[in-house]
Each structure stands twice: as C-alpha cells, then as structure tokens.
C-alpha cells in the first residue's frame, strides 16, 4: 500500500471543514468553491479508506477517524504558518519578535534593555506582551519567554535559562520583626494573582505551614497589579525573585523569608530547528544576565 501523503490542498480542506463543521464556511475561508472542497474531502476519504464526516441534523460531525486526523493537521498547519511567517520576516530584515508576560517585560526585561543594546547594538528586537500558554507560537512571534513546568511539548524547543524562585515580599515596616517566623504571615493580608493560584499554597507547604490557612484576602488578574498593590502597602505578595530584584535593591520591598525554588523553569520557547543568529545572541545575553544575579 502506498504510504504517500494526500495532497496538501485536500488536507487543508479537511482541516477547515473540521474546524468550522461546514463545507460552505470552509470554502469561504479557503477562497474556493463549495464543490472544490467537497471533492477534496471525497478524494481524501477514498485515499485514506475511512469516512471523515457524518451528517448530524443540519450540520456535520467528525467521525472518530476525523478527530484523530484533525489533531495532527491543526498542529501541522499552525507550525507551517509560524515557520513561513518567520522566514518572511527574516527575508525582509524584520525584527525578531519576542513575547514575554507583561510583568516580566516591565520589571525585568525593560530595565536591562540598555545593556542588551550596548552588547548587541545591531540586534533588531521587538518586544510584545504575551500572557497566554498557547503553543505553537503565532505567525507574528519568533519566541516567547515564560515560566512553566516540564515536560515540554514535543513540538517546541525550550531553552531552559534559570529555575523559578518565589517568595513573599512586602513594603518595609509592614512587619516589625527583623527575622520573622513564617507563621507571622497568618496575621497579614495575603495578595494573590489568578495566573499563579498555587504560589501561596506551595510556599506554605515548603515552610511546614498548614495550607488550609492560606486566605484569599485580595486577588488580581495580573501579577503586575498584585505587585503594585504590595508596593502601596496593601499586603504581602508572592512573586518570582526575578520580578522584584529592582524593588528589593532599591528598598521599596523586602523579602524577610527569602525565596524557594519551584519545579518551574524560566525558558525561551522556540519552534523546532536551528535558531537564527539573532536568537543565538539573545540566548547568550539572557544567560549572562541571569547568571549575573
């Protein structure tokens, strides 16, 4: 039996019909006729020897075989879209687009951007906020920096840069004891962020404290908002050490209990393949900066 792949057009047609559950909408998305999409689907079914769609009321439903195929086609087309977009940007001299969370961007990367420019003045870098966990990358982003826990996705190249370390931070004077017992936190307002709901329970457990004593005194959508609340004295925030380095150095915040390692890693997430020269230089600089701590 031939192991050759079906035509790319047939797979694209299938992927769109599977996504929209409509031949008409798939034809509009692909800018072809309804009949062309129907023919591609029939040819694909004939070549694979399976039925991919069944009628369900007035619409379509995926068969088990189609669900299996779609898991691969959707991922493959996302990777192709990203790869082609990346190559187009490189060919036109467009900047390397790096995504970071807004909090990491504002509190770690931008304060050090002058050092990156001093080391690599010709590095054309565009920074953008990236708050999602989605992978693969979009076609307009070359790499993202994020804290995450292994195992890594099979279709991602993750350059591990540093372990994540978290700890409670607050304004000076919120607690008077110079070396307070961790239990002192039970009497202070605890600030939370929705993106790191397990941070306080994880820290409590590491200190031997009762996790059920974690109170949700005030919650914020973004970590950056939580840190701003800590800076005006509203309570104690739990934060990665990298994001509060400047505040600790300037004395705006204190970390009386220090920081603990978590199982997460700060990594640079890239598509598979050899990184370009610009990405290689970015990796080198990131490692130097993080090791300099």
From TrEMBL:
From the Swiss-Prot or TrEMBL record, what is one GO molecular function term? sequence-specific DNA binding
> What's in the keyword line of the UniProt record?
DNA-binding, Transcription, Transcription regulation
Q: Which GO terms describe its biological process?
A: DNA-templated transcription
Q: Which InterPro entries does this chain map to?
A: LysR-type_TF_proteobact-type, LysR_HTH_N, LysR_subst-bd, WH-like_DNA-bd_sf, WH_DNA-bd_sf
Does the keyword rRNA processing feature in the UniProt annotation? no
Q: Which residues form the HTH lysR-type domain?
A: 6-63
Spell out the family assignment given in the record's similarity comment: Belongs to the LysR transcriptional regulatory family.
Q: What is this protein called?
A: LysR family transcription regulator TrpI
Q: Which organism is it from?
A: Halomonas elongata (strain ATCC 33173 / DSM 2581 / NBRC 15536 / NCIMB 2198 / 1H9)
**Lineage of the native species?**
Bacteria, Pseudomonadati, Pseudomonadota, Gammaproteobacteria, Oceanospirillales
């Amino acid at each position: 039996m031939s192991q050759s792949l079906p035509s790319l057009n047939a797979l694209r047609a299938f992927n769109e019909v599977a996504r929209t559950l409509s031949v008409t909408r798939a034809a509009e998305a692909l800018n072809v006729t309804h009949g062309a999409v129907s023919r591609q689907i029939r040819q694909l079914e004939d070549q694979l020897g399976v039925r991919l769609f069944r009628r369900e009321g007035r619409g379509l439903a995926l068969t088990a075989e189609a669900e299996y195929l779609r898991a691969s086609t959707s991922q493959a087309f996302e990777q192709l879209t990203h790869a082609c977009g990346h190559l187009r940007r490189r060919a036109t001299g467009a900047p390397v687009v790096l995504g970071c969370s807004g909090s990491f961007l504002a509190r770690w990367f931008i304060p050090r951007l002058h050092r990156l420019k001093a080391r690599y003045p010709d590095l054309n870098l565009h920074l953008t906020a990236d708050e999602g966990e989605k992978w693969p990358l979009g076609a307009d982003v070359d790499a993202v920096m994020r804290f995450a826990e292994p195992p890594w996705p099979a279709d991602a190249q993750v350059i591990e840069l540093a372990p994540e370390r978290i700890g409670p931070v607050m304004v000076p004077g919120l607690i008077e004891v110079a070396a307070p017992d961790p239990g002192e936190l039970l009497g202070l307002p605890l600030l939370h962020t929705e993106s790191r709901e397990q941070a306080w329970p994880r820290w409590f457990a590491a200190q031997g404290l009762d996790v059920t004593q974690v109170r949700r005194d005030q919650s914020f959508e973004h970590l950056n908002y939580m840190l701003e609340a800590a800076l005006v004295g509203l309570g104690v925030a739990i934060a990665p050490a990298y994001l509060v380095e400047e505040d600790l150095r300037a004395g705006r915040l204190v970390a009386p209990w220090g920081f603990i390692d978590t199982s997460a890693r700060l990594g640079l997430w890239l598509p598979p393949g050899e990184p370009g020269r610009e990405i290689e230089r970015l990796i080198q600089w990131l490692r130097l900066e993080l090791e300099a701590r």
